[in-house]
Write a structure and sequence with these properties.
heterodimer; A: 458 residues; alpha/beta; Gyrase A, domain 2; Four Helix Bundle (Hemerythrin (Met), subunit A); Rossmann fold; 3 domains; seven-stranded mixed beta sheet; 15 helices; B: 625 residues; alpha+beta; FAD/NAD(P)-binding domain; Elongation Factor Tu (Ef-tu), domain 3; Arc Repressor Mutant, subunit A; 4 domains; six-stranded antiparallel beta sheet; 20 helices; 22 strands
């Protein structure tokens, strides 16, 4: 348990709103934020004056851009938590928000627990006692919520895999430890190679889990769905129809939707994370160009692409440009505006998908077919969805990354020739990071494992 | 019974085992008038099981006891007959010292030391009663023959004597170890005072006569050539005087055991006490690890002036007749004459969470517990607790502040924290895996960790302290020097690197960097380090370890800093957990039972969740004075 490290979380509701804020608090907040921030003039956040806003980009480890952001730097003590705070304002939506949060967590911050910013505000003396009880209510409510979610998830495949990895690492530690604690016993030690191989295997398994956490985790986070089409084909209208609310700006002027807008909707029993993208076409407008590029990158990242064609016009170069970019993605073709004659050549459309639906946003025609199609493609039976699923899985990922880094350090140490025993620190760190997901502690379990698995004692 | 007033002492120590001896010495040396009661004067510092001191984690405890001014290490140095550093080849971080002792000499030396200690009286007597005043504070103790002593503190260190019961097959009788009287009445007195006791169990294997053993059928185990003493004060260490032997059980042994399992009191339900998992009886091993075709047996001498040999690995509570058959089935023991029969022993002890980190009872001021009475097992674990209980009893009488150690600075602190905060359901043995900071808590640096504390207490002499300060400074200076000093790619340097298959250098490199290479060490680099000062081997060893494992040491130091922050957050003594809004009932009950003194302690109690800790911290913040 730590009380003074640097924490981070998304502080705006998931999936809603045009802007999301990732809040970082703690002594290392500014340094952490600087690691994921790039300014075109080379300005850093540590160089920023307190309580000012700096424009720039959130970047991945390799320097590639995640999103354009505005960062607010607020130095202690005049902040909500009385610690250094950085707020990263990015374009709303689950995908980029989550990715920025991941980058922040990868740069040294830890995912905040429910209510932790408030708790810190209290502990650092920002709130008076009257507010204390409401803080506790928050802690309790959120924790039990999170608890029920995690209990649900712990029955799943993820927890089973984590359990197996933990078990393997515990066994390795027990093997190492029993030889030390019972030096004179007649035990068959693991060879250095077996030990290293065991760690590497765990490392690979964790990497795979992190990958699945990244790539969808459809059950928990929903299907990443990109709605693509040339400008003004009706993408925003479709989103509004599905969401039932005027969210995206809909006009008849081509190119109105410049940012990707994401929504989470349930369709045919499947949770879809819908991203309406800016219309894709070749353009010379600089700002629109950014939107187009972003649309393409969202499309590449999606589990499902809904490609919208216009029934009133034959396929044109813009359509073909998009169809070329699809590159074998799971695709549903919606021929919108199918109130009359279907002008596009369906034979060509069949080339990209056999799921072609004649659709009309205006008349709500084809909605039932779309629902059925998606249900057939992704339905996973009765999977309970939860509001906290996103947060929880980021929490899991956070723990998995910690665990992976610890194992990496062990592997490097062993390969450099250090005695195996020294690596217990790394292995135990890795085990306890996994334990953060399953809620178990280390020391006692190793001792139990030793007595259970080895014949030792005088 | 006619009672008489027999005198007044600051501290009474009840029991003269390893806990009692350290407790009495520490208390008397700090200046408290102390009396040690022992049922039989000839059993002072007895080793009723293996005559061996140290081993993994236990050896660490002995060195820590020594750094704090305790006696066990010195006494073991004086009386060992074989010494081995365990885990050599697994890196200095896990080295562990273990010696075979001459059992009688160990007792005699310790007894003599006790006899010659100022402020300390020895008395052969069984204590049958501890008298408490209205608030539960210790007032006096009473011996079986009616002598009443007024005391301010009492330390219970009754080992396996408290309501001791020996079991062999279907026979059981009230007894302490080695045929000495048990202490029955004290247990009843404690119960009357409201102190709950419980039953634990342990056991010891058979002893056989050396002359009846055929050693030609066994493997020889020799001691180290280069012997490291336990005590940082021992300059002249003796040499190995005996060898030990190794033999194995076999199919036949296992069949004898399996055929007679129904005669074991363990399976008939006659034994109610909880035994330790790390000291399984041979029948337990055979049942639980049925696929193992053999188990090791070590044949170890009990001393120089005796032919008795200890058969390590052959603990049993099967009937004597079966034990003899089992023995005779083993290679080299075909004609062994059994001198002492293996037995199981049950005894009363307490739930150690009744104690504070000083080992004083939370609800009985002046009453302390140490050793097996607290639910631990092992001579070294007992001695460590005896030392801490003795120190604190004396400090209390002298009006000085209490002395506690935490998990991050010592195995002793880890042992006591585990006992008093987590509690134990079986006789507790120290193991390195119990310490999350075991890279820092090495046996080689126990003096660096604890001598300062021992000195401040008054248990380390001025002369030793000065030597310690010099060693510490020498280490620091030498580390600074080699971290600064560069060597270039001269032929001599390249030759040396080549000799140890180490990557050649092309430009200048710091000596410290070379020491960090796994294939090199401080000693190896001596030929290319011309201005190296002359240092003793223990100082040089520290320089090597501290540089070599610097990366991992830093990781642990960071963990320790984190740990300390939570330990420093104190919980008010009078906290009423019913007032803490939002605490779960289970956590409320556990916290109220253990009554942790810090947030760190609270977080280690099983059944207290992180959410409970949040709630508690919010409460504490809100109620800060």
């Amino acid at each position: 348990m730590r009380i003074d490290d640097t924490i981070a979380a998304v502080s705006t509701p998931a999936g809603r709103g045009g802007i999301s804020i990732i809040r970082i608090s703690g002594a290392e907040a500014i340094a952490v934020a600087d690691k994921v921030f790039k300014n075109e003039y080379g300005k850093t956040l540590s160089g920023a004056v307190s309580h000012t806003i700096t424009h720039g980009f959130a970047v991945r480890e390799d320097g590639s851009v995640i999103d354009e952001v505005l960062c607010t730097v607020m130095k202690a003590p005049h902040t909500y938590t009385k610690e250094d705070v950085v707020e990263i304002n990015c374009h709303g939506g689950i995908i980029s928000t989550r990715e920025i949060l991941s980058a922040v967590l990868g740069s040294g911050a830890r995912l905040a627990q429910p209510g932790e910013f408030t708790k810190r505000a209290f502990l650092n003396g920002r709130m008076d006692l009257c507010e204390a009880e409401s803080v506790i209510d928050i802690i309790n409510a959120k924790t039990s919520d999170a608890h029920s979610v995690s209990v649900h998830q712990l029955k799943g495949a993820l927890s089973e895999s984590i359990g197996k990895i933990r078990e393997r690492l515990l066994m390795l530690t027990a093997h190492l430890q029993v030889l030390i604690d019972f030096a004179d016993e007649d035990l068959e030690p693991l060879s250095d190679e077996e030990y290293l191989a065991g760690i590497k295997e765990a490392y690979t398994d964790i990497e795979k889990l992190i990958y699945t956490a990244d790539r969808g985790k459809i059950l928990k986070d929903g299907v990443k769905t990109a709605i693509v089409g040339k400008p003004n084909v009706g993408k925003s209208s479709l989103l509004n129809l599905l969401y039932g609310d005027d969210r995206a700006i809909v006009t008849d002027i081509e190119g109105t939707t410049r940012d990707a807008i994401e929504e989470t909707v349930s369709l045919g029993g499947v949770m879809l994370n819908l991203a309406d993208t800016a219309g894709i076409r070749e353009t010379s407008d600089a700002i629109e160009k950014i939107g187009v590029e972003k649309s393409k990158s969202i499309m590449e990242d999606a589990d499902l692409v809904i490609f919208m064609a216009d029934a009133t016009r034959p396929l044109d170069p813009n359509d073909e440009y998009i169809m070329k970019s699809l590159g074998g993605k799971n695709t549903i073709v919606l021929i919108n505006k199918s109130e009359g004659e279907i002008k596009p050549d369906t034979a060509i459309l069949k080339g990209i998908s056999d799921k072609i639906i004649e659709f009309s946003v205006k008349e709500k025609k084809g909605l039932d077919v779309l629902e059925k199609t998606i249900s057939e493609m992704f339905s996973c039976g009765e999977i309970a969805q939860s509001d906290d699923a996103v947060v929880t899985s980021v929490r899991h990922k956070d723990a998995l990354i910690k665990s992976k880094n610890a194992l990496k350090s062990a592997i490097e140490a062993i390969e450099s020739g250090i005695e195996l025993n020294m690596t217990f620190i790394d292995i135990e760190n890795a085990i306890s990071a996994l334990g953060e997901i399953t809620g178990q502690t280390v020391a006692e379990e190793i001792v139990d494992k030793i007595f259970h698995s080895f014949c030792v004692g005088k | 019974m006619r009672e008489y007033y027999a005198g007044e002492y600051d501290v009474a120590v009840i029991g003269g085992g390893h806990a009692g001896c350290e407790a009495a010495l520490a208390s008397a040396r700090l200046g408290a008038s102390t009396i040690l009661f022992v049922i039989n004067m000839d059993t002072l510092a007895n080793m009723p099981c293996n005559p061996c001191i140290g081993g993994t984690a236990k050896g660490h405890l002995v060195r820590e006891i020594d750094a704090l001014g305790g006696e066990m290490g010195k006494n073991a140095d004086k009386t060992f007959i074989q010494s081995r550093m365990l885990n050599k080849g697994k890196g200095p971080a896990v080295y562990s010292l273990r010696v075979q002792s001459d059992r009688r000499k160990y007792q005699d030396e310790m007894k003599h030391t006790l006899e010659n200690t100022a402020n300390l009286d020895l008395k052969q007597a069984e204590i049958v009663e501890i008298e408490f005043d209205d608030v539960g504070a210790v007032k006096s103790v009473l011996t079986k023959i009616g002598a009443r002593y007024k005391v301010r503190c009492a330390i219970i260190a009754t080992g396996t004597y408290l309501k001791g019961k020996v079991i062999v097959g279907d026979v059981s009788y009230e007894s302490g170890p080695d045929g000495v009287f048990p202490a029955n009445e004290l247990s009843e007195c404690l119960k009357r005072a409201g102190i709950q006791v419980r039953r634990f169990k342990t056991g010891t294997p058979a002893r056989v006569n050396r002359n009846s053993i055929d050693f030609s059928k066994m493997e020889v185990q020799v001691g180290d050539e280069d012997i490291t003493p336990f005590s940082f004060e021992t300059d002249d260490i003796g040499e190995n005087k005996v060898v030990c032997h190794l033999t194995y059980t076999n199919e036949e042994t296992h069949n004898i055991i399996k055929d007679n399992l129904h005669l074991s009191p363990l399976y008939s339900g006659m034994i109610e006490g909880v035994g330790p998992r790390y000291c399984p009886s041979i029948e337990d091993k055979v049942v639980r690890f049925a696929d193992k075709s053999r188990h090791q047996l070590f044949v170890e001498p009990m001393g120089l002036d005796t032919e008795e040999m200890y058969i390590q690995g052959f603990s049993s509570s099967l009937p004597e007749e079966v034990q003899i058959k089992m023995l005779h089935s083993v290679a080299g023991l075909e004609n062994a004459k059994m001198m002492r029969t293996a037995y199981a022993i049950e005894y009363d002890c307490i739930d150690s969470t009744m104690l504070r980190a000083t080992l004083e009872f939370k609800s009985y001021p002046g009453l302390f517990g140490a050793g097996q009475f607290n639910g631990s097992s092992g001579y070294e674990e007992a001695a460590a607790q005896g030392l801490i209980a003795g120190i604190n009893a004396a400090l209390k009488c002298l009006g000085r502040g209490e002395f506690t150690l935490d998990r991050s600075e010592s195995y002793i602190g880890t042992l006591i924290d585990d006992l008093t905060i987590k509690g134990t359901n079986e006789p507790y043995r120290m193991m390195t895996s119990r310490s999350e900071y075991r890279l820092l808590l090495r046996q080689d640096n126990a003096d660096l960790r604890l001598t300062e504390k021992g000195y401040k207490l008054g248990l380390i002499a001025e002369e030793r302290y000065r030597r310690f300060l010099k060693k510490k400074k020498d280490i620091e200076d030498e580390i600074a020097r080699v971290e600064k000093k560069s060597v270039g790619p001269s032929p001599m340097v390249l030759d040396l690197l080549n000799e140890y298959s180490s990557t050649p250098i092309t430009t200048g490199i710091k000596l410290g960097e070379l020491i960090r290479r796994p294939e090199l060490s401080y000693d190896i680099l001596a030929p290319i380090d011309s201005d190296r000062p002359e240092l003793d081997k223990y100082t040089a060893e520290q320089v090597n370890i501290q540089i070599k494992y610097d990366g991992y040491i830093k990781k642990q130091v960071a963990q320790v800093e984190q740990f300390k922050k939570l330990e420093l957050k104190k919980i008010p003594k009078d906290i009423n957990y019913d007032d803490v809004y939002g605490l779960r009932i289970e956590a409320r009950q556990k916290l109220d039972k253990i009554r942790p003194e810090s947030v760190g302690q609270a977080s280690r109690i099983s059944g207290v969740s992180p959410a409970d800790m949040n709630v508690l911290m919010v409460y504490l913040q809100g109620h800060k004075a």
